[in-house]
Amino acid sequence: MTRAPFETIVAAHGARVWRVCRALLDEPDADDAWSDTFLAALEAYPRLRHDTSIEGWLVTIAHRKAIDVLRRRARLVVGDVPERPAPPEGRDLDLARALSRLPTRQREAVVLHHLGGLPFAEVAAVLESSTDAVRRASSDGVRRLRALMGGDHG
Amino acid sequence: MADLPGALPAPPLDALRARLAERAAAAGLLDVAYRSLDTALGTLLVAATPAGLVSVTFDGAHPEQTLDRLAVELSPRLLEAPARLDDAARRLERLIAGRARAFDGPLDLSLARGFGREVVERLREIPYGETRSYAEVAAAVGSPRAVRAVGTACRRNPLPIAIPCHRVVRSDGSLGQYAGGTEAKRLLLGVEAARRG
């Protein structure tokens, strides 16, 4: 069996993987998680089963690498991890900042499904939850995002 | 994605890819690096393994088929990594411009196998500014009747320009075939004739 050049994998899925990383992390950390993801994928690529969905595989690695970065960060901070500063009242949040204010489970469900493109069944497998639970978390998350980002409109 | 309010900014993909190539090389995971190279002979596709320059082809503007072949014949761990090829690119440019007489960087001959490898090794012995006929090369490899096979081996030389298959011409003095086209062969021989002596 033959494999496409890894460059074509990066070209086809690089943007999606970055969105997943950026939705879970600040930009410098997202950049690190992006290259952590593709480095791990490059290592495993020649042995990857041929029936594997490439994008599901990459999004799953990206999620894991993002969590690794968050854990490393948490260990570096003495005591409680400080909340990100809240923006001034009445200001619209951009999507990245609004996502950072979602509860973890909602954020992960929204990111994996809406930005990563994973079906809910796969999101459930990644998050070790049920399909119904992640579907609910995702729709609650999207509703919360709309509220957070609604801001000044109307 | 359509039903999320707003969108994330565009990813800085060029910078990300450059950094990935560097990290992959440092981790020993970049088996094949490639870049395109604009030259007087057209846009080349040049590729290298950690051992050295491994492939030069004349399809840099449309490299998909060659990249697929390199992924199969060498390794699918293949990335566009221009910085890894700066040195080889400069050496090729100097050869094409007549500012160097030989490619003196590392070469990886793993794409030349069997009889093709024997021929390619002999091509490196043809002095700058000179030519040999296909029949003479066939005699030199000890297979004087394999003139046609020598022609095929020259055409399939994985490292044209760096390994001078352009110095092999027909016995009647006409240029014969060249992977980069007859004009490219004429140009290279013309540069060498002008610089010779």
From TrEMBL, chain A:
GO molecular function, one example? DNA binding
SUPFAM superfamilies linked to this entry: Sigma2 domain of RNA polymerase sigma factors (SSF88946), Sigma3 and sigma4 domains of RNA polymerase sigma factors (SSF88659)
Residues of the RNA polymerase sigma factor 70 region 4 type domain: 94-143
Instruction: State any GO BP term from the record.
Output: DNA-templated transcription initiation
Q: Which CDD domains match?
A: Sigma70_r4
Among Pfam families, the record links this protein to:
Sigma70_r2, Sigma70_r4_2
Among InterPro entries, the record links this protein to: RNA_pol_sigma-70-like (IPR039425), RNA_pol_sigma-70_dom (IPR014284), RNA_pol_sigma70_r2 (IPR007627), RNA_pol_sigma70_r4_t2 (IPR013249), RNA_pol_sigma_r2 (IPR013325), RNA_pol_sigma_r3/r4-like (IPR013324), WH-like_DNA-bd_sf (IPR036388)
| Signal sequence region | none
Key words, A-Z: DNA-binding, Sigma factor, Transcription, Transcription regulation
Instruction: Outline the extent of the RNA polymerase sigma-70 region domain.
Output: 10-75
Q: Which Gene3D superfamilies match?
A: 1.10.1740.10, Winged helix-like DNA-binding domain superfamily/Winged helix DNA-binding domain
Lineage top rank: taxon: Bacteria
The record's section on NCBIfam families has:
sigma70-ECF (TIGR02937)
Name the family the entry cites: Belongs to the sigma-70 factor family. ECF subfamily.
Task: Output this protein's name.
Answer: RNA polymerase sigma factor
Give the organism, scientific name. Agrococcus sediminis
UniProtKB/TrEMBL annotation, chain B:
Keywords of the record, alphabetical order, are: DNA damage, DNA repair, Methyltransferase, Transferase
EC number(s) from the headed UniProt entry = 2.1.1.63
**What biological process terms from GO does the record include?**
DNA repair; methylation
GO MF annotation list: methylated-DNA-[protein]-cysteine S-methyltransferase activity
Top-level lineage group: Bacteria
Q: Which InterPro entries match?
A: MethylDNA_cys_MeTrfase_AS, MethylDNA_cys_MeTrfase_DNA-bd, MethylDNA_cys_MeTrfase_DNAb, MGMT_N_sf, WH-like_DNA-bd_sf
Q: SUPFAM superfamilies recorded for this chain?
A: Methylated DNA-protein cysteine methyltransferase domain, Methylated DNA-protein cysteine methyltransferase, C-terminal domain
What this protein catalyses is: a 4-O-methyl-thymidine in DNA + L-cysteinyl-[protein] = a thymidine in DNA + S-methyl-L-cysteinyl-[protein]; a 6-O-methyl-2'-deoxyguanosine in DNA + L-cysteinyl-[protein] = S-methyl-L-cysteinyl-[protein] + a 2'-deoxyguanosine in DNA
Q: Does the keyword Methyltransferase apply?
A: yes
Q: What class of enzyme is it?
A: transferase
Which residues belong to any copy of the Methylated-DNA-[protein]-cysteine S-methyltransferase DNA binding domain?
A: 115-193
Q: Does the keyword Nucleus apply?
A: no
State the family it belongs to.
Answer: Belongs to the MGMT family.
**Protein name according to UniProt:** methylated-DNA--[protein]-cysteine S-methyltransferase
Q: What organism is this sequence from?
A: Agrococcus sediminis
